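Researcher: First entry.
Model:
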Amino acid sequence: MVNVGLPRFADDLHAGGVPVIDVEWTPPASADARVLEALDRVTGANPRLTERVEAANALAVERMLAADPVLVDVRPAGEVIDGLEDRMILHAGPPIEWARMCGPMRGAVAGAIVLEGWAPTLEAATALAASGGVRFAPNHHFDAVGPMTGLTTRTMPVMVVENRAFGNRAYCTVNEGLGKVMRFGGNDEAVLDRLRWLASTLAPLLGDALRAEDGVPLKVLVARGLSMGDEMHQRNVACTSLLLRALAPALARATRDNALLGEVLEFIGGNDQFFLNVAMAMGKAIMDPVRGIAGASIVTAMSRNGTDFGVRLAGAGERWFTAPVEMPRGLYFPGFTADDANPDMGDSTIVETVGLGGFAMAASPAVAGFVGAGSASAALGATQSMYEITATRNPEWTIPALDFAGTPTGIDVRKVVASGLAPTINTGIAHREPGVGQVGAGIVNAPLACFEQAVAALVEGMDEG
């Protein structure tokens, strides 16, 4: 007998002593003939194109692993992000206009407009946004990223991470903490007051401390965090603590105001997700030097805005490949259910792009239960499956539970399309209505359609070249 596909199909035959030949075979993940033809051409059918892709991917991986990200500063976004103008709001995900924005994105936009003083009330802010009175653009178009709604305006302070191996910088707003916050669509006065405190109190002191110490190197810090149970998306307890440990002496030297120092230390120490935004800026700083490598099939960004999921590809420059974003699956806070949830959103998927988050879930079994992924063994399985769609393993970021194997690194669109395995992403869940905030946490998969478009575009670009 010949068994094609899963070996367990022939378990009864094996048990009965029947000779069986097991043949490995997986049906094509896509039914689109154009996509399958393109995939075939860059996975062996056309040796010339395949060799070009492999060489380009080797360069992409080399740049990723050579990165030297350092947290160097905290400054108002308007001072450091080129092109961020007045009456402009940067947001998470691929480009989107007001009419297509989801509820929490609209709520955050209204709050940001009031924060900037462009309108006196949330109602007036909503009318201003709807009338075209502000410009919208993705964070990714300005070397920046932002969690969930991801809003960035000129007065908001941003973390500055410099990739010293390549000289580029990336930016991400400061994490607001937990509860009702703007990144989840919160926009009441308490939300705005916290943002004002971050800009007026925490950011200046943190910036002074970082500049005085010439920054905090991040790769080693992340490596330690992985060994302590973080995966850098839903769990950042260890890395937040390690960062605070590195910064505390510099913060103490940067001010003689003990009350101010106490406020800042208390905020960072009490915010388990403080490091998330640092990790996001780090991921952006690592991936940007990979953009523009002709022929490379490595994903340089994954992002979502609550309406669309977008993917960018090293070999396709600044182009976005989009599809409708999916609903997260997870656990909800008391009083909320899946009926309250908004589809997934945020630039935080940049951490999965560099091999963290859902790709490193095996390092953080506690996250598996928190996001509803199941048991610790499910966390191991999540990471192991991501090895099948990535180009390499990061030798500096290892996972003790996998015998110190490196994290799966460098998402290869060819492998995603060929296997049908969509990247696994850890995520927070926002309420679908503006102003409510976070209602849970879970996991979500990137839509395969984005990767199918990217494969087809990759081959078209190589043909033209």
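Researcher: Second entry.
Model:
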Amino acid sequence: MQNNNSDTLKILFFGDLVGRPGREAVRDFLKNPSEFLPEIDTDINNCFVIANVENASHGFGLTEKNYNELSSYGIHCMTSGNHIWDKKEIKNYIETADKLLRPINYPENCMGQGSHIYDFNGHKIAVINILGRVFMNIVDSQWEIAKREIERIREITPIIVIDFHAEATAEKICFAKFCSELGCSAFFGTHTHVQTADETILNNKTGYITDAGFCGCIDGVIGMDYQTSLNRFLTSLPEHYEVAMSGPKQINAVIVDIDPNSGSAVAVKRFFCSRKEEKEGSSQ
């Protein structure tokens, strides 16, 4: 679904960044998107950029150094998920990291922020980060929390974006429809690292995809090293995952065009691409 209306607000969302390859892929894409996607017709400089960064530092969590690095690339908001606490130093800087969100349905006294309203090109854009509960760590129920937060934010701005970090597709679809009925503008599923082909606009309101995918090395297993992943399956023994570091790097991203007056999505488009010179066989 495409819309070339220059009056729309564009949200560019990157699926989970995995380790250094994911950070570098996003850096290079933002510098020169045509290297990855020659046919791209969007001015990336005019996009509000969001990236899920919970796997950005060595595959687990986010260091302050990498937070600052990603900020320098032009990322306006960083969302996360169940791995947000994996780096102990997160506690030292999350309270002052205005671009970084942790899931809003951690307990109320938890440090950090679960939502934030950003000023961008004369618009107020709200982003909410939420964690699923099916096959995931137990956190507070997202349903009533999301309802209260969306209703609160709609008094300030109609532009509301959600990153729902969850495992089960049924939970993502059902929760997206629930949030759409409440007035959500865009809803991106994350966590599984496999981009789904179901981008759509729900209720003529919400740009949606079940999972945005991941950014990192194509030749691993959802961004992790193949051999260590294989060993875990073959032996059923615990083995520390290592980030896949070699081979072509992929970008999984989604752009949603939003009418800034109504807050409704008018177009949604996903990208699954790698650098042209690194591709082998057909492009994706």
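Model: Note on the second entry: The helical segments are 19-31, 64-72, 90-93, 142-154, 169-182, 226-235.
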